[in-house]
Amino acid sequence: MDEGSVSPNAVAVEGQGLWKGFSTKKWVGTKRQVTRSYALKGVDLAVKRREILGILGPNGSGKSTLIRLMATLLIPDQGWLKVFGLDVIRDRQRVRRLINRVSVEASFFKKLTARENLAYAAGLYGVSNAKAQVEATRILASLGLQRDKLEVPLETLSRGQQQKIAIARALLTSPTLMLLDEPTTGLDPTSRRDVQEFVLNVRREHDSTMVLCTHDMAEAERLCDRIAIIHEGRIIAVGTPADLIASYASGGGLEDAFFHITGLDQERLRAEAEGDG
Ligand SMILES: Nc1ncnc2c1ncn2[C@@H]1O[C@H](COP(=O)(O)OP(=O)(O)OP(=O)(O)O)[C@@H](O)[C@H]1O
Ligand SMILES: [Mg+2]
User: Fold this and answer.
1) Cα separation, 103 vs 68, whole angstroms
2) What is the three-class DSSP state of 54?
């Protein structure tokens, strides 16, 4: 690969054979035992440019871990992962400049105001504070957050209000790849709609590629071009919402397809376990 330049026609994200485990330590008598359990067990994925790829899966299936690998916050144990042709390990700094991540566990200085937090983030991203404040105010208005909420300590805002600040913060730099880890979880129906509209607008305006984790089937169907279903660290189905419904739902919608696919996987895993035993 030439110095890792970003080709306009490149696949946005491509990965193969991704494994990621976490070690937990516990004391058994006087001995310390370390066990490693795997959140991702051989994931292959490809996200096309300008696509919104949804990742659906039960709690603990590995969605956020996969997002964190793309965000270079975690390093895979095995396999490789590229963002616009750049390797997440070797070209980590360049990959970081291409991604904007929104997650439910957004970290803020909770005693500072939203305005102060945004100013701090602008400094990190090398964006002028004046520009950041204008942009953030515009974004927050479109998400229905009152202006005065920018001036109070962040810890006094509701979770949904903080989530909106996190979205505004992620958009201080223009997004090439947006990683949205449950961006609407905990939002009221109107705010959820506002965020969904906003996501579609951002994609239109910036030609961004997006990876979206959600538990909301209607949201997945509305926003995603394709959906990957992940279960116990493996991607077990990928397709357009219509494909998944046609192949797996028995008369119902995406939720029906989701239950069917994850249920089939459970049956397969049980059969494998019995076969091994
Ligand atoms: N930092 C960590 N240390 C130890 N285990 C972890 C860590 N992060 C994730 N895990 C484990 O990896 C597995 C996958 O977690 P992950 O957060 O990726 O799930 P998820 O699909 O995002 O779930 P949710 O829908 O609840 O957000 C879980 O079993 C979790 O306990
Ligand atoms: Mg998660």
Assistant:
1) 10
2) strand
Q: What is the pTM of this model?
A: 0.91
Is residue 57 in contact with ligand 1, taking CB distance under 6 Å?
Answer: yes
Ligand 1 center–CA 73 separation, angstroms: 14
Q: Probe ligand 1: pick from 40, 43, 63, 216, max atoms within 8 Å of CB?
A: 63
Let me know if residue 271 belongs to a domain. no
Spatial separation of the C-alpha atoms in residues 69 and 59, rounded to whole Å: 18
Say how far apart CA 12 and CA 93 lie, in whole Å. 16
Contact between residue 79 and residue 19 where contact means Cβ atoms under 8 Å apart:
yes
Residue 59 belongs to a domain with what CATH number?
3.40.50.300
Total residues found in the chain within this entry: 277
132 domain-assigned? yes
Residue 84 Ramachandran class (φ > 0 left, ψ -120 to 50 alpha, else beta): left
Q: Render pLDDT for 25-49 as a digit per residue (tens, 0 to 9).
A: 889 899 999 999 999 999 999 999 9
Strand, coil or helix: what is 182?
Answer: coil
Q: Is 244 helix (H, G, I), strand (E, B) or coil?
A: helix
Task: State how far the Cα of 19 lies from the Cα of 40, in Å rounded to an integer.
Answer: 5
Can you tell me the distance from the alpha carbon of 73 to that of 260, in angstroms, rounded to the nearest whole number?
Answer: 32
Q: Which amino acid is at 56?
A: L
Q: Please, which residues bridge with residue 177 across strands? A: 99, 209
Please check whether residue 2 lies inside any domain of the structure: no
Both tokens of 71, joined, read: 């965000």
Q: What is the mean pLDDT of the chain?
A: 91
CA distance 4 to 12: 13
In a domain, 255, yes or no: yes
Query: Which sign, positive or negative, has the C-alpha torsion 193, 199, 202, 203?
Result: negative
* Total domains, the chain: 1
